[in-house]
Amino acid sequence: MHHPIYASEFVVYSSVVRSRWQIAPHAHECFEMLYVLEGRCQVATEVGTYVAEPHSLIFFRPYQWHQETSLTDVYALVCMRFPPDFVTQYHVPLPGPAELPTVLSLPPDEAFRPILNRMVDEYQRREPYHEQMIGAYMLQFAVLLHRALRQHSGAQSLPPQAQMLQHLLDQHVTSTASLREIAHAAHMSESHLSHQVKAMLGVSPKTYVRMQRIARARDLLASTAMSIEEIAATLGYDEPSSFFRAFKRTTGMTPGHFRASAHG
């Protein structure tokens, strides 16, 4: 998918929209975190479509394309955009992609909103050390988020059948096995495997494997000196050109551009 990619920035604000609207698919070079205060919004990404309601946290990682559509006449939120350097500088323990979904319903105990309000206030006042204060608040927010995720995973963990399917597909993320071969390993027909994966994981087997491959590719591009050809081979692509096309189709960027951006 081709979409605009907006430059990295550091900004914190509250916003209220009083008429319905839609934002076309786009991505940011930075993290974007939204906390819904009032109303509802539909969020579409490469993974799927979600509905965010009050107390929902919407979290987009750098270069993750997304589309937003308000579903109510009034939609209020707190928004924070921050570059990866902010996370490193202030030692913010952000949950990883496997832990934190794009849309997460947080407990309505008002533990998160006061911290967000303080961040907005610090940013608006722009007094000395305001960024350091926001960094401290963000660290608190991340710790509370980890605790909420532990409670969430304990209450809503995947059923055993879904965990088995997820494990099966994870084993084949870097292989060239066909869907028929994967289904045979699971003692299922292709159609039954596809139906079960779609029903329990929300995406087709092919989409799940592709998403996991691209997620691993991002990690390797950002954290290693492996060449693009080596990464393509490691992830099971027959040709570097196939990896190049798949990465660009999913992220909107070439692997080389992503690596350059990740390294600042």
Describe the structure in brief.
The chain has 264 residues and is of the alpha+beta class. Helices cover 46% and strands 20% of the residues. β5 and β6 (49-52) form a beta hairpin.
How is this structure best described in words?
The protein has 264 residues and is an alpha+beta fold. The protein is 46% helix and 20% strand. The chain is built from 10 helices and 10 strands. The protein has helices at residues 84-89, 113-125, 130-155, 160-171, 179-185, 190-201, 205-223, 228-234, 240-251, 255-262; strands at residues 5-6, 11-17, 22-28, 31-38, 41-45, 49-52, 56-60, 66-70, 75-82, 103-105. It has a 5-stranded mixed β-sheet with strand order 1-3-8-5-6, with no helix packed on it. A hairpin with a 3-residue loop joins strand 5 (41-45) and strand 6 (49-52). The longest helix is centred in the middle third of the chain and has 26 residues, at 130-155. The radius of gyration is 20 Å and the shape is globular. The model has no long low-confidence stretch (mean pLDDT 86).
What distinguishing features does this structure have?
264 residues; alpha+beta; five-stranded mixed beta sheet; five-stranded antiparallel beta sheet; 46% helix; 20% strand; globular
What is the element layout, followed by pairings?
Blueprint: E1 5-6, E2 11-17, E3 22-28, E4 31-38, E5 41-45, E6 49-52, E7 56-60, E8 66-70, E9 75-82, H1 84-89, E10 103-105, H2 113-125, H3 130-155, H4 160-171, H5 179-185, H6 190-201, H7 205-223, H8 228-234, H9 240-251, H10 255-262
Parallel strand pairs: 1-3
Antiparallel strand pairs: 2-9, 3-8, 4-7, 4-9, 5-6, 5-8, 7-10
